[in-house]
């Protein structure tokens, strides 16, 4: 399938790429494999975290997927935009536990059905 526009995905760190149990960090291997698959499919990936950009980068490095991401960002506290995120065109939310069963083509199809 050819994508009309490049798909851009923001991937959270905590409880998405890695879980913490006390001081132990547990990689979410299914989501990490999904990130690699999306990267290989040409999806533009950005890692973000409420822990900040450097935390997102360090976590991606720790998990061996730093090279899959174009950039690392903190999650915003304030969003100044003329539209609320729920009104953004072709925007979908995917829970990490649902992501592994999806491909870039699946996302493209879902996005084509999302409000424009």
Descriptive labels:
single chain, 116 residues, alpha/beta, Rossmann fold, 3-stranded parallel sheet, two-stranded antiparallel ribbon, 4 helices, 5 strands
* Largest beta-sheet details: 3 strands, parallel
Total domains, how many?
Answer: 1
Category from helices, strands and their pairing: alpha/beta
**First-to-last CA distance:** 20 Å
Could you list the spans in which at least 5 consecutive residues all have pLDDT below 50? none
CATH architectural designation: 3-Layer(aba) Sandwich
What is the approximate shape?
Answer: globular
Quaternary structure annotation? single chain
| Count of alpha/pi helices | 4
CATH class designation: Alpha Beta
Kindly summarize this structure in a few lines:
The chain is an alpha/beta fold. It has a single domain (8-113), classed as 3-Layer(aba) Sandwich (Rossmann fold), CATH 3.40.50.
What does this molecule look like?
By secondary structure, the chain is of the alpha/beta class. The protein has one domain (8-113): Rossmann fold, CATH 3.40.50. The chain has helices at 29-40, 53-63, 96-99, 104-113, and strands spanning 8-12, 18-21, 24-27, 44-49, 69-74. A three-stranded parallel beta sheet has the order 1-4-5, with helices on one face. It is globular, with a radius of gyration of 14 Å. The model has no long low-confidence stretch (mean pLDDT 91).
């Amino acid at each position: 399938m050819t994508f009309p526009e490049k798909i851009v995905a923001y991937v959270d760190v905590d409880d998405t790429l890695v879980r913490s149990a006390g001081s132990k960090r547990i990689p979410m291997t299914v989501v990490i494999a999904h990130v690699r698959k999306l990267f290989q499919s040409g999806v533009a990936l950005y890692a973000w975290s409420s822990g900040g950009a450097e935390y997102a980068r360090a976590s991606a490095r720790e998990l061996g997927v730093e090279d899959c991401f174009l950039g690392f960002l903190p999650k915003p506290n304030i969003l100044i935009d003329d539209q609320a995120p729920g009104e953004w065109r072709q925007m979908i939310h995917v829970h990490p536990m649902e992501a592994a069963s999806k491909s870039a083509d699946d996302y493209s199809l879902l996005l084509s059905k999302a409000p424009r």
